[in-house]
């Protein structure tokens, strides 16, 4: 909820399920991604292995269920199974899948086969044909399509094979007649991608990377490779962009390989992280970020690859339930992230792009829906209401087109409350007499009883205070300063420290932070301090169905009341930036940088 100007909007994230609160020493990491929704089913998604997205459908192979399942992702917050084909013979341990037109091509590990599936009617997919070859398709694990040829990596056969699929009902290995077998350079291949004349292959068992010339499908040939490389331990998945290949390694690494000279690929940089990248398998790339699904870490890791020589961890989400046994990751057109997880038997949707938010004037966002609205000045309005906490906010005017939040009140059913106000910075303070660990920009009071007639009040003045669950109705947290770091471009409001309250309970995990009006600079930089305000960042929500208040109504989660309708000024659509949201944590009020409500 951005109480800012019409020049910019800052996203407010919706999240999935509240995690336990970790009291961090400082603010320097990116905020958690937000869980949008998930679907789990057996046998439809039992042992979910690979996912590929075409339009509003996600195609998921279920290795243990011997099935291919189509999931409707048209509404990411409400995933549902559209149709499934289950076939123990023709879909024996399906792993890789690629879709072209109305046909899905499935690599079956246990069946040593390539199976074609008619998906023209998503509600009732059906097997079209199959080619079985225990020699040339031994342990078929991944598939890519180029024209009328399907290229299949065969893990047990140490091979890359070609299948003629010009007639999808009768795929035929013999017609194409090509299979490159190489027990050294293709020892246990896994994922691969074809770009131009070359296939770039992650060599799992050989701890390496291979480049194969596929310009002549009838005569494949090895061009170059890196085998037995410590930076490519158990290489499992790969994507290519330009002259760089990004390799997810099951051994706990993301490695970037220079393929500008295919005959002599070389490692450019590598990130080793056994906490967040252990069991790395699937990988997707968007802009300067690689998204990695990990089987053992049970996570989705986001790696900043903007500097190929030194990739760095930008963010990571570990979820021991939904991401248990993660195998593949795919992005839709809105950059929502979909992860297939074998142990969870399901597909989960995540977002680093603020599926729900509120911004300038203020503006509420959900997906590509944007609602411009205004709130009554100086009145506390229920922004978000859950069974165990209510967040209210009030705004002040910041020019003819602006509103900013200067007060947030948090209250619980047992009559505990926290009143957070933006300090009046125009009064200034004497640094020589001001205590070092005192709050500068936030004024925080906790109390019991009603807000208008409290039974007890206590002022929180420390910038490192611990808030116990008893004083806030089950919510616990800390106060802290925003640190100067790579992910926080401006930790100050003029000469004052930016500060935050970090609270987590059963239903919500959120922050309330002080922030400058960053759009004002140069001759107008004094207004950045004059219009300093509060940001609300919703990190995680346990159950969207339990929400009420102005923001959920504006997001479209619950029906909009007549009162909320009266706040709306304009409905429109907007393009969401690829990397908006929580790649940077406590950033200022900028559309591309933060899950923020201002």
Question: What does the model show?
Answer:
The protein is mainly beta and 598 residues long. It is built from four helices and 45 strands. It has a six-stranded antiparallel sheet with strand order 32-33-34-35-36-37. The protein has a five-stranded antiparallel sheet with strand order 38-39-42-43-44, with no helix packed on it. Strands 1-28-27-26 form a four-stranded antiparallel sheet, with no helix packed on it. The chain is elongated and about 85 Å long. The relative contact order is 0.15.
Provide keyphrases for this structure.
598 residues, six-stranded antiparallel sheet, 4 helices, elongated, disordered C terminus
Mean pLDDT: 83
Structural class: mainly beta
Distance between the termini: 5 Å
Helix percent reads under 10%
SSE topology:
Elements: E1 34-40, E2 48-54, E3 57-62, E4 67-72, E5 80-86, E6 94-100, E7 103-108, E8 113-118, E9 126-132, E10 140-146, E11 149-154, E12 159-164, H1 173-176, E13 179-181, E14 189-195, E15 198-203, E16 208-213, E17 221-226, E18 235-241, E19 244-249, E20 253-258, E21 266-272, E22 280-286, E23 289-294, E24 299-304, E25 312-318, E26 326-331, E27 336-341, E28 346-351, E29 356-359, E30 363-366, E31 369-373, E32 381-385, E33 390-397, E34 403-411, E35 416-422, E36 442-449, E37 454-460, E38 466-467, E39 476-481, E40 492-493, E41 496-497, E42 499-504, E43 508-515, H2 526-530, E44 533-541, H3 550-555, H4 562-567, E45 568-573
Antiparallel strand pairs: 1-28, 2-3, 3-4, 4-5, 6-7, 7-8, 8-9, 10-11, 11-12, 12-13, 14-15, 15-16, 16-17, 18-19, 19-20, 20-21, 22-23, 23-24, 24-25, 26-27, 27-28, 29-30, 30-31, 31-45, 32-33, 33-34, 34-35, 35-36, 36-37, 38-39, 39-42, 40-41, 42-43, 43-44
């Amino acid at each position: 909820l951005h109480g800012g100007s019409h020049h910019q909007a800052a996203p407010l994230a919706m999240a999935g399920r509240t995690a336990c609160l970790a009291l961090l020493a400082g603010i320097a990491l990116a905020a958690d991604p937000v869980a949008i929704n998930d679907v789990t089913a057996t046998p439809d998604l039992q042992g979910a292995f690979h996912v590929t997205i075409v339009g509003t459908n996600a195609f998921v192979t279920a290795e243990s269920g011997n099935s291919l399942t189509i999931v409707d992702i048209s509404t990411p917050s409400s995933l549902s199974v559209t149709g499934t084909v289950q076939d123990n013979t023709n879909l024996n341990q399906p792993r890789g899948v690629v879709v072209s037109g109305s046909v899905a091509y499935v690599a079956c590990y246990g069946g040593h086969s390539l199976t074609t599936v008619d998906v023209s009617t998503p509600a009732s997919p059906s097997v079209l044909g199959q080619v079985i070859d225990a020699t040339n398709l031994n342990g078929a694990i991944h598939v890519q399509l180029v024209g009328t040829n399907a290229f299949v990596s065969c893990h047990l056969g140490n091979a890359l094979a070609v299948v003629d699929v010009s007639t999808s009902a009768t795929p035929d290995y013999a017609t194409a007649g090509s299979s490159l077998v190489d027990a050294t350079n293709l020892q246990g291949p896994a994922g691969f991608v074809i770009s131009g004349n070359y296939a770039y292959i992650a060599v799992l068992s050989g701890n390496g990377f291979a480049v194969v010339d596929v310009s002549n499908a009838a005569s494949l040939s090895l061009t170059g490779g890196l085998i037995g490389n410590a930076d490519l331990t158990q290489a499992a998945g790969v994507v290519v962009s330009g002259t760089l290949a990004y390799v997810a390694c099951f051994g706990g690494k993301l490695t970037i390989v220079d393929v500008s000279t295919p005959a002599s690929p070389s490692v450019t940089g590598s990130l080793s992280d056994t906490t967040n990248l252990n069991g790395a398998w699937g990988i997707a790339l968007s802009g300067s970020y690689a998204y990695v699904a990990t089987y053992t870490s049970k996570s989705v890791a986001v790696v900043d690859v903007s500097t190929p020589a030194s990739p760095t961890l930008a963010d990571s989400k570990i979820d021991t339930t939904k991401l248990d046994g993660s195998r593949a990751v795919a992005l839709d057109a809105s950059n929502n992230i979909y992860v297939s997880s074998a142990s969870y038997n399901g597909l989960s949707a995540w977002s680093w792009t603020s599926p729900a938010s509120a911004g300038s004037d203020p503006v509420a966002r959900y997906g590509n829906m944007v609602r411009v609205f205004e709130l009554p000045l100086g009145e506390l309005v229920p922004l978000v209401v859950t069974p165990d906490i209510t967040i209210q906010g009030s705004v002040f005017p910041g020019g003819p087109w602006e509103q900013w939040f200067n007060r947030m009140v948090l209250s619980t059913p047992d009559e505990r409350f926290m009143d957070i106000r933006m300090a009046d910075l125009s009064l200034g303070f004497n640094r020589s007499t001001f205590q070092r660990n005192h709050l500068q920009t936030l004024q925080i009071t906790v109390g019991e009883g009603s807000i208008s007639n409290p039974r007890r009040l206590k002022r929180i003045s420390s910038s490192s205070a611990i808030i116990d669950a008893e004083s806030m109705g089950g919510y616990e947290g800390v106060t802290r300063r925003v640190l100067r770091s790579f992910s926080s471009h401006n930790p100050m409001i003029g000469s004052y420290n930016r500060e935050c309250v970090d609270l987590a309970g059963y239903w919500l995990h959120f922050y309330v932070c002080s922030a400058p009006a960053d759009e004002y600079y140069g001759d107008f930089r004094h207004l950045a301090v004059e219009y300093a305000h509060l940001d609300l960042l919703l990190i995680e929500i346990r159950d969207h169905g339990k929400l009420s208040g102005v923001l959920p109504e504006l997001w479209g989660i619950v029906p909009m009341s007549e009162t909320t309708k009266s706040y709306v000024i304009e409905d429109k659509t907007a393009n969401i930036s690829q990397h908006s949201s929580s790649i940077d944590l406590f950033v200022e009020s900028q559309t591309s940088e933060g899950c923020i409500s201002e």
